[in-house]
Every structure is written in structure tokens, then in C-alpha cells.
Amino acid sequence: MCLSYCCTQFKKMQELTFEIESNQEIWELFDKDLDSIFIHKFMPNQAIEWWKTDLKTQNGAEFKNLSVRQMEMDVQTDLSGLKKILELNTNQLRIYQFEKPISDTLEMEKLPEKNRNLILKQNGLKHFFSVNFEFITVGSFESEFISGIELNPKFEKRIEDSK
């Protein structure tokens, strides 16, 4: 029993990288049964642009009509929120799909690189999506999830071309 459990605990993440044509295609890749989304270092606007916003802090302080730029944040949302974020057509995103919300104490920057995927898996990570302009890398601990993307007629040729 333990051998089977141990082997699944340490299963490596499988990855695919291929060209993507739109954020609508990115949306099609997500597991619609997993509603906990974490986006690491989300930037709602391009770094060089100044934009107006209001800001409310956790302790209730409010700032109205601020000019900000290079604003980046970690975001926890659900599939509905993810869909709205994808509609912004942001060029670079690091999206993690978990089976449950991540804890307040989990900070990506503090995770050791060599154990990062294992720690994230222990915290419920199922799939990872790294969008970098026209390319996407999809990672998953579930080989069936990766196989489903590889066999999807829309992505099959692009995946072959990238290998």
C-alpha cells in the first residue's frame, strides 16, 4: 500500500510547450472541475503604463484615484475570475490550478527550487499554465490531463511541431 502511495506522491510533473493563438484557446485547456486558481505575480497592465485606480487595504484604509504602474500581485480566484482575467489578453501569466485554495503561508519566492513542485503538489496543485506571449507551457501531475491536450485536434499539430 505504501509503495503505491509513495510512487504517486513523487510522480514528476509532465509538461508540454506549444503555440497558442488566443486567450480563448487557453481557457479551453483548463480543468473545469477544479475551481481554485492561483495566479503568481499578476500584472493587470503593462509595466510601462501609468493607470488610475482606487486601492483599499486589508485594515480598511482607502486611497482614491491613485496613479500606479508596475503593479503586480498574487491572485486567488475561481474559474469565473480566471475567465475575466484571460479576457484582458495579458501576454504573460503564471497560472496554477489547485484542488483547494492555497494557504496564506505559501509564498512562491520562498519555496526551494528543487522541491517546489513537490511542495505545491502536497498543497493540492494539479495543473500549471505558463503563458509567454504566443507560447504556453502546460504542466500536470496527471498524465491523462496531458494526454487529453496532446490528442485534442486543435493542439495536436502545434505540439508535434514544437517537439
Structure, explained:
This protein is 29% helix and 32% strand. With 163 residues, it is α+β, with helices and mostly antiparallel strands. The strands form two sheets. It has a six-stranded antiparallel beta sheet with strand order 1-8-7-6-2-5. The longest helix has 10 residues, at 153-162. It starts with a helix and ends with a helix. Mean pLDDT is 90; it is low at 1-9.
List keywords for this structure.
two-stranded antiparallel ribbon; six-stranded antiparallel sheet; alpha+beta; 29% helix; 8 strands
SSE layout and pairing:
Layout: H1 2-9, E1 14-19, H2 23-29, E2 36-42, E3 51-56, E4 62-68, E5 73-77, H3 79-86, E6 92-98, H4 116-122, E7 125-132, E8 135-140, H5 143-150, H6 153-162
Antiparallel strand pairs: 1-8, 2-5, 2-6, 3-4, 6-7, 7-8
Short description:
With 163 residues, the protein is α+β, with helices and mostly antiparallel strands.
Strands in their spatial order, largest beta sheet = 1-8-7-6-2-5
**Helix coverage percent:** 25-40%
Radius of gyration: 18 Å
Instruction: Compute the number of strand runs.
Output: 8
Q: How would the global form be characterised? A: globular
Unreliable parts = 1-9
